[in-house]
Amino acid sequence: AQSVAQPEDQVKVAEGNPLTVKCTYSVSGNPYLFWYVQYPNRGLQFLLKYITGDNLVKGSYGFEAEFNKSQTSFHLKKPSALVSDSALYFCAVNSGGYQKVTFGIGTKLQVIP
Amino acid sequence: GAGVSQSPRYKVAKRGQDVALRCDPISGHVSLFWYQQALGQGPEFLTYFQNEAQLDKSGLPSDRFFAERPEGSVSTLKIQRTQQEDSAVYLCASSLVRDRGRQPQHFGDGTRLSIL
Question: Which residues in chain B are contacts of A34 at CB distance < 8 A?
Answer without folding.
Answer: 104
